[in-house]
Amino acid sequence: MNVDYLIVGAGLSGLVMAERLSSAGARCVVVERRSHLGGNCHDTKDSHGLFYHPYGPHYFRTSSPVVLDYLSRFTGWREAAYRVRALARGKIWSFPINLRTYEELIGREATEDEFRGYLKTPDRPPANSRDAITSIIGTDLYDLFFRDYTLKHWGRPAEDPSVCQRIPIRTNRDDRYFTDSFQAMPDEGYTALFERMVVASPHLTVHFNMSFEEARARFPHRHLIYTGPIDAYFHYRFGALPFRTLRFELEEKQPHELDGDGHAQVALQINYTGMEAFTRTVEVKHVTGQSSRYSNVVREYPDRYVPGKSEPYYPIPAPAEEQQADLYRQAGAEERDVTFLGRMATYRYLNMEQAVTLALHKADELRRRHRWADGEKLKVEN
Ligand SMILES: Cc1cc2nc3c(=O)[nH]c(=O)nc-3n(C[C@H](O)[C@H](O)[C@H](O)COP(=O)(O)OP(=O)(O)OC[C@H]3O[C@@H](n4cnc5c(N)ncnc54)[C@H](O)[C@@H]3O)c2cc1C
Predict the structure, then answer these.
(1) Cβ–ligand 1 contact at 312 (below 6 Å)
(2) What is the mean pLDDT of residues 242-246?
């Protein structure tokens, strides 16, 4: 079957492109090697009908009216307060670091001014994550929350110059995880949102359990939109790009394991900052608003990434990896009639707002460059 656009990946990036382009009259095929819509944003239900996120928790937030307007065509929203706590030295702490965390550290109430006085002002660019963090919060809070966590999360110590991460700090008592103006979950879940996007796409077919390699020959196309890993597209010509992978374990919770409010843990997300093998546990019931005698928790274990075998989750934000990724990006820019888009094809961590913004932008660009009409073939205008 001849199509205008072959789109590889039914994640957020691929589906936004499919909806935008097919709504403008283009014939689109999406192929997805997994068996469901939504890529890593996919959600599903446990044996008690409670949502969970099999590829990691997804907390939607945005300050972009464009992104919000667009997604609101396919979903209603349920306002959410994303609360995270840290478990360190056997105690639950307020997190991300804010005035309450400081009060918990010193064991008494404090003022914003006092906390500001405790924080430092870095006098030089940081050499690594340890430097970036301790130059602001000192070593006490760093040891509590970041030293072991960084090692677990990235598989590299915070002293390693290859990873340099900064952290949010609030001098007031605002303990929301994010500060965006809009923070909410799709009221019927992410998968329902994606299903509505597909229904709203008039010239679209989606094929599951199908890889790019198989689809390439089966669907001759005018233009390819590729949202898979860019190194795989080029058969690892410049070596495999490193990612951090994750393993998720679902724990279904029985009524006797829940507190009086029907929850298994005190907050949506608990970060485990010591040397436990896992980094966080997430109970999405805190934000889905589902009412049930049961609940569930997903426990997240970071792991070593094996290209082609494990799922690529987090690109490593380090200079050597950036250089390697640039080689692939340059090769990508030289491919004719191919658009590389999304987290894995750009080797950039993109949150959902960023992924939607980039996809909307790219779809507009393609709609301007390509013209089509019913029954006519796609015309490319250079
Ligand atoms: C653990 C984790 C937690 C996150 N939490 C949040 C959050 O709380 N809030 C937020 O805003 N963002 C979050 N994100 C980011 C969010 O997941 C991304 O913004 C979003 O998934 C980007 O969509 P995408 O389509 O680019 O990639 P993906 O979701 O990865 O979709 C790409 C799809 O392509 C398919 N594919 C790949 N290769 C092939 C091939 N060769 N053939 C066929 N199909 C292929 C894959 O199976 C996948 O379904 C999180 C990301 C991770 C990893």
Answers:
(1) no
(2) 94
* Gap from CA of 351 to ligand 1 centroid (Å): 9
For residues 173 and 99, the answer to whether their CB atoms sit within 8 Å is yes
DSSP 176: B
Atom of ligand 1 nearest to the CA of 42: 29
Going along the chain from its start, the domains and CATH numbers come out as 3-43+189-239+316-380 (3.40.50.720), 84-154 (no CATH)
Radius of gyration of the chain (CA): 22
The rounded Å distance from CA 261 to ligand 1 centre is 32
Give per-residue pLDDT as tens, 22-37: 999 999 999 999 999 9
Ligand 1 centroid–CA 40 distance in Å is 4
Residue-wise pLDDT for 147-177, tens only, equals 999 899 988 888 887 766 777 889 999 999 9
Which atom of ligand 1 is the closest one to the Cα of 39?
49
pLDDT of the residue at 375: 47
Q: How far is the CA of 41 from the centre of ligand 1 (A)?
A: 6
The closest-lying atom of ligand 1 relative to the alpha carbon of residue 12 is: 25
Tell me the pLDDT tens digit for each residue of 44-95. Answer: 999 999 999 999 999 999 999 999 999 999 999 999 999 999 999 999 999 9
How is 38-104 classified by DSSP, letter by letter? SGGG--EE-TTS-EE-TT-----EE--HHHHHHHHTT--EEE---BEEEEETTEEEEESS-HHHHHH
The verdict on the CB of residue 348 being under 6 Å from ligand 1 is: no
